[in-house]
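Support case: iron/sulfur cluster complex. Customer-provided input:
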Amino acid sequence: MSKLLEVNDLKKHFPIHGGLFGGVTANVYAVDGVSFDIAKGETLSLVGESGCGKSTVGKAILRLIEPTAGQVVLDGERIDNIPLSQLRKLRRRIQVVFQDPFSSLNPRMRVRDILAEPLINFGLAKGGSDIDDKVAALMDKVRLPRDAMRRFPHEFSGGQRQRIGIARALAPGADLIICDEAVSALDVSVKAQIVNLLSDLQDELGLALLFISHDLAIVEHLTHRVAVMYLGRIVELTDRRTLFSKSHHPYTRALLSAVPVPDPDAPRNRVILTGDVPSPINPPSGCRFHTRCPFAFDRCRTEEPQLRSVGTGHQTACHLEHAPGEPIAAMAMA
Ligand code: SF4
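Agent response - structure generated as follows:
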């Protein structure tokens, strides 16, 4: 599969100003050298605890915030350094669905007008009836009744509003949709419906998805590959099946072992983490995870592990030669 998006050594550092003259006194290392790619029609999930930098990666790709360093390449063309005026036409190809659909939908606009806006802005509809036809087709795609286009956002449930958000992302004909915690605020059954919708749309339209989530259980049903982030860095990157059956990094194992399973009495290799995530202002020396890792040894405290290959398409940033313990049987894929 050809690459649609390449992210190379992306960094986003937020300066902290202080002191007598308001100079930069420190930096928040929110994203600190992240690289991955996404093929056309592929889903890559970016997972990790709150504050690990995953949403910042999404915003930096979209240039909603300016990256500090690194490259973002869309279909062979760098988009991290082009003027914002030129970026506009490329924005058509990368769209975003945020966690809270209500705050991202204008409450004073009817759904018809919300969906018409990108069609008009990108010159994709010719006039009134053409707009109505295209909005109706978008409503069909996200499985909302056509007559609902006359209603306002507050007249919809959370799941329905998220469908409107997805329709708006589809309107300009995007190749890639960044879903930033797009199902996190929804009830379990609604979550599953939205994930199924995204999966169906991907099959139908050949969409690529960057699915940003703290919830590995949701990711399992949607993704092709997973990148696990900790304190601004990717610590493991592999395909879904390998991640859920043969993960290598102790942090990934801790996340997996915390995922609820249908039978809570089934034997599991729990990896219990202690302590809080350290501050991204002053990340720990060596392996950033060493302050919480139950397998840390001397080398971990001084030498930062780089991503290295431990199998076909499987990379990990850990000094351990072999994955600790046995595979997490309870999470093994069927
Ligand atoms: Fe744990 Fe050391 Fe591996 Fe980091 S490098 S995850 S501290 S074993």
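Residues 188-205 form the longest helix (18 residues).

Case will auto-close in a few days if no follow-up is received.
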